[in-house]
Design a protein that fits this description.
The structure is a homotetramer of 133-residue chains.
Chain A: E1 2-9, H1 26-40, H2 45-50, E2 53-54, E3 57-64, E4 73-80, E5 88-96, E6 99-108, E7 111-112, H3 122-131
Antiparallel strand pairs in A: 1-4, 2-7, 3-6, 4-5, 5-6
Chain lengths: 133, 133, 133, 133
């Protein structure tokens, strides 16, 4: 299992006229946390793309328990619970202090530059073996 | 059952460096289609808010089957399949021509200006009774 | 001179907690109007990119006279007043009915895929000669 | 003169299919830096809004010298060069290391909840007197 916690301060641009964070913006925060999680185990998504791979989102889901507000200091947790086989599922939680605001998950798979499904880059597969052994 | 189809032309701002529509942007399109669907049965979300109600998103989910691209002419379908009781579930499909690109759903409930759960405005409840009778 | 008018209905996602359209979002609308203007004279930005050219924004400026609101039906005007030489300057106006809300301008220049300044594609240069002769 | 430097790591969501940061997104970063600058001198924009004031953007301008890229570690500088009288002008610079990528400015004025121009809140005026004396 690998897990990362990323601090996010809510930007004004991320609010809507309901006075809360627009529900679509959590996906960008999930991505920030996911990217950081991979980076922390030595996998740079920037390098992965430079090597000709993409890791698009195949599925995404969110439950909004309580709204996040402008200027809130949040913690976004990303977590890889299981060793990915063909698909990579990542879970997320957004907290303000001890209060859980939002939970979510995304599912990904590697594709090449033309969008065709491919095996993960060897160094990603090795790293996953290493982490989940 | 009520259903609406809304044309969307993909904006450059909606793409990311993978060369496809950023996965978080579909939620804004769902909202465009949802708003239009309510408007077509005589329910203006703008008026609903002016009356002191909000209809926040409690859950959202998406499956990305194929990517949408810059300048694509898409059709976003919103559909209310069942009479809402406490929660309103809306289903979505995004098409390019006959090709289904993305499916999704959102779940909503009415709250007051302070975010407390409330019954729907009477004219919304009446309209739903009318549609689903 | 060429000019295009594009209707825009304000999305909820485009508002912020001030209850108005977030000031950064006008740039995406300018781009919608600019793209449409080029398309109407037979120049597809999608094709221009496929041919290996980009037309990045070098400068942008906006004056916000009055706020646009959720669900407003707006008209965004894009206008090319002068024959572009090395740089292309486009002017914009955003109206709600007869009321002018926002004015702006963007300046662009052609670059190749590596971001180096290049002459415009020949068919763009010809079209500009044709329009401004 | 007051000045603040804020680190920004470029999010994938902030790129477009040109492979660079979408030009409209700099305005959200300017706002992050502006908010931080005010907070550092003891002025919370959140409190200002809670007190019934807004500080909308009246003008914005940007020059894009070089593109920012995904995962870049940037520094966004916000600077108040002159004591604001009726209008507040803030200047911005975006750097990657020593390389200046983007410059910009925004102009603001205080309005009340109904959007009418008003004098700044007294504690803001006092703070400005203190800083620029």
């Amino acid at each position: 299992m690998i897990q990362t916690k990323v601090p996010i301060n809510v930007r004004y641009a991320e609010t809507d006229q309901m006075g809360i964070v627009y529900h679509g913006n959590y996906l960008a925060w999930f991505e920030v946390a996911r990217t950081r999680m991979f980076k922390e185990v030595g996998l740079s998504y920037k390098r992965i793309e430079a090597d000709g791979y993409h890791l698009p989102v195949l599925e995404a889901a969110m439950k909004y328990l309580r709204p996040a507000l402008y200027d809130d200091d949040l913690i976004v947790v990303a977590r890889l619970d299981e060793k990915p086989v063909l698909r990579i599922k990542i879970n997320y939680e957004v907290y303000r202090g001890d209060t859980l605001l939002v939970t979510g998950a995304t599912v990904h798979a590697f594709v090449d530059r033309d969008g065709r499904p491919v095996r993960p880059p060897p160094y990603v597969a090795e790293k996953m073996n290493e982490i989940f052994s």
